[in-house]
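--- STAGE predict ---
source: upstream dedup step, 1 unique chain passed
mode: sequence only
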Amino acid sequence: MRADFALAALSLILLTGAVPPPKQPKLKGTYRLVSRDLPDGSKLIPPSIDGLLTYAKGYRNFNIYWKDAQGKLFSVSYIASYELTPKEYREKSIFFQVNDEIGGKGASYDLSPASGASPVTIKGTRMEIQMPLHGEPAVVFEGSKMTATGKGVFGTFVDHWERVP
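--- STAGE serialize ---
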C-alpha cells in the first residue's frame, strides 16, 4: 500500500513538471587571488600580487597586496561581519587597514563601526554584489570563481579569484 502512495506522489511531480529550484549561489568558503588584469592589457600574477578572501559564519576576512615596478607594496586588510539575503548584502566593518608604500603614505587604520548595504542580483548560479564600504569593487560569484571589477580608490582592474577546495 505504501508503494502505491510513493508512486502516486512521484507521478504527480512528473505530470506537473515540478522541478526543484536552482541552488542559490553561496559565498561561504576561501578564495585565492589568481590574477589581476590591468587597463593597459598587462596581467599581474603571484608573487607580484596575492590575496586571500574568506567568508565563514557571518564574517569576512580579506587580505591583498601588490607590488609596483620598484618593489614597493600596497596592501589592504579587512575584517567585517556580513549578512546575505537573496535581495541584499549588508556589512559592518570591524577593522580596515591600508598600507600604501607605493604612494608614500604608510599604514592607515579605520576602526569605526561603519555599516552599509547594497542590492544583490542573482541569475541562476551567478550572484552580483557592489561591495558597500571602503570603495571596494563590484564582485560576481559564479560556481567556484569570483571576479572583482575595480573602478575607484584602489585603481581600475579586474581580479580573478578561485575557491580553495
